[in-house]
Amino acid sequence: MSTLSIARLPLDRATALAERVAAELTGFCDRMEVAGSIRRRRETCGDIDLVCVPKVGGRAAMIERCQRAARLVKHGEQYAVFQLANGFQLDIWFAHGGGGDMFVPEPSNFGILLLARTGSAMHNVWLAQLAQTAGLHFNPHRGLLRRGALIASAEEAEIFKALGLRFIPPEARER
């Protein structure tokens, strides 16, 4: 989603900005992590990616709070994109906390969103190819699927394990 950004910031400045934004929004969430190039520790970053599990009513409250300082560019069920005054872009990805009913429980998709939004894009392509080779499907919004059944989505580590991999640290996810 990083198509709007006109500015790139050095990692230390991007990290500080991301931490300030996250601190401002964390009260609306049960869980929040910085993702993207900041999490991969790239030398420069073109946007802020946040992945969160909003509290009840938290999604709308976060969007409202962000609109006080940034322009809402676009949004959907699972994301909101803002343009900050300095030209930097903020992408917020909304995971669900899990649940469903007792007959069809659905784990959270936080892990797959964090993994996919951390990237890199080529790392995600590589994971999708590994999944396909193993007869699985890598859905970057839902999780790792086998014949349509969800087998891993809540945590990054479980997704890597289901693919037969050890956990790959974000800094090593460049391809």
Explain how this protein is built.
- Strand 10 and strand 11 form a beta hairpin.
- The chain has two domains: 86 residues, Beta Polymerase, domain 2, CATH 3.30.460; 68 residues, Beta Polymerase, domain 3, CATH 3.30.210.10.
- The radius of gyration is 16 Å and the shape is globular.
- Helix 4 packs across helix 6.
- Helix content is 33%, strand content 29%.
- The longest helix is centred in the first third of the chain and has 15 residues.
- It has a five-stranded mixed beta sheet with strand order 2-4-7-6-5, sandwiched between helices. The chain has a three-stranded antiparallel beta sheet with strand order 10-11-12.
Shape: globular
Strands of the largest sheet, in order across it? 2-4-7-6-5
Structural class: alpha+beta
- Major sheet: 5 strands, mixed
CATH homology superfamily of the largest domain: Beta Polymerase, domain 2
Look up the CATH topology of the largest domain. Answer: Beta Polymerase, domain 2
**Helical stretch count?**
6
Extract low-pLDDT stretches. Answer: none
| CATH uppermost class of the largest domain | Alpha Beta
Q: Overall mean pLDDT score?
A: 92
Count the E strands.
12
Strand content: 25-35%
Number of domains: 2
The percent of residues in helical segments reads: 25-40%
Shape-level CATH architecture of the largest domain: 2-Layer Sandwich
Radius of gyration: 16 Å
Distance between the termini: 19 Å
